[in-house]
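Our consortium's second objective concerns turning raw sequence data into structural hypotheses that experimental partners can test. To show how far this objective has progressed, the report includes one record in full. It was chosen at random from the queue rather than selected for favorable results. The single chain below, 242 residues long, was entered without modification.
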Amino acid sequence: MGGTSAAEMKRRFILVVDNNVDDRFHMSMVLQRFGYNICTARSGEEAVEFMSVSPPAAVVSEAGLTGAGLLSRIKKDARFSDVPLILVSTRPDQALEDRARRGEYAAFLRKPVDVEELYRVIQSAVEKTPRRNIRIAAYLKAKLEDDPEGADGFVTVISEYGMFFRALDPRPANTRVPVSIEIKGRSVRLEAVVLYTSSFDEGPFKEPGMGMKFVKINPEDQALIKTFILEQVGKDTAPQGA
């Protein structure tokens, strides 16, 4: 469950370009729930002005004239030539899909965008070590079941396959631990192995605890976790009229 630090995330952002306010809001909220900082623009011209001040880690833009104009201006300016451009469209466009496959764009996606596909595309475009499975910030009550005193804590990051368990006294790396997590009114019991630990002493953006990988979990509970994640990503973000 390691990856980009909070300090690195604060220095980077994704620029969302769309003249439709509802679509712009929806995309921004989903990307924020992936853990990214977001800035927005209503047009290609506004986007270029913004990029001239602070180049983003990637641009997610509506397709059509806006996207074509952005690609042309980005490729002509050395400051932006390596900024990945992801296009989204309400309609199929074979020419844009072909250009994306040739590497002119980072990707071409259809609206409404599938959040899992969007996550993988953003990860591939932005991260040095891309993840395939969505992980989100959370605040779920949890417990180390092998501790006689209960060892209550909280899961603050979760994916289908692992989590970060916030604890002041984390277990050593490679320790296998039975854990229970409260999700959607159910107690999910699983076994996880500690991949790494962190503490306040490691810096201002570190919280104490353990990054853990699930090693034994019922398929039904894993499906529940995935459902919870997708619900949290899409919560209150659907464009009006969708």
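The partners drew two points from this record. The first strand starts at residue 14 and ends at 17. The two ends are 33 Å apart (CA to CA). Both points have been shared with the crystallography group to help prioritize constructs.
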